[in-house]
Amino acid sequence: MSKISTIAIAAALLAGACVQTPDSADPNYQKADAQMAQKADDMPVASAPSTSTSSVMVGGAEMVTTANIVENASRSADHTTLVSAVKSAGLDTTLSGAGPFTVFAPTNAAFAKLPPNLLSSLQQPANKGRLTSVLTYHVVPGRVTAADLMRQIEAGGGRATLRTAQGGTLTATSDASGVTVTDNKGNAAKVTTADVPQSNGVVHVVDTVLIPG
Q1: Residue 101 phi/psi, 5° resolution?
Q2: Which residues share a beta bridge with 178?
């Protein structure tokens, strides 16, 4: 949009989540995946897609404005963990679709803050539903730029509530250091690179993994 306030909270939240079945026939998995595509159509787009041909460097690579979210994330050396998790959850097809989507994209360092072995556990087939829930919590249907966020924060008296594809909410605030996005448990992610344009939305790089609750 600094850190997970209590890693134990994140572990408890994820450990307490209901384990899902391992394939795409899982109704909860299908529901989460469908919500991402459907909400993008249902919600108003906050701003028109950028027509700029300028690009942004992320993870040592150029983010190509004509490439989609998955294609660009795959170029970034800072987002290999996120791309692996997205593919494990089977969300790469959805996030390669028309969208538009706004993604708060945690870096490898953000995932490294999670308890040891937690991510590898989530990437097991039996836990696909739990992984999907975490990842879609970082996705907001529609294209929400940094300027859009600032307008929403100002209109909300200092905070903006964002409805995610997972179904939960995130709270965006700002101060002199920039924009912070906070989950319902108080875990806060700082936006370290904003407005990375994509053909199907916009990405804001964040330094912390947010946990649905």
Answers
A1: -130, 145
A2: 175
**Alpha-carbon distance 86 to 179, whole Å?**
24
- Which residues in 13-60 belong to E strands, given as ranges? 56-58
- CATH for 7-47+54-206 is 2.30.180.10
What does the alpha-carbon distance between residue 65 and residue 138 come to, in Å, rounded to a whole number? 21
Using the structure block, give the residue that is written with the tokens 């795959």.
74
pTM of the model: 0.75
Question: Tell me: the pLDDT tens digits for 78-134?
Answer: 999 999 999 999 999 999 999 899 999 999 999 999 988 888 898 888 999 999 999
> In which region does residue 89 sit, left (phi positive, over 0), alpha (psi from -120 to 50) or beta (all else)?
alpha
Tokens coding 26: 């899982």
Query: For 185-202, what is each residue's pLDDT tens digit?
Result: 899 999 999 999 999 999
Find, among 102, 113, 103, 118, the residue nearest to 207 by Cα.
113
Is residue 5 within 8 A of residue 188, CB to CB? The reply is yes
Q: How far apart are CA 159 and CA 163, in angstroms?
A: 13
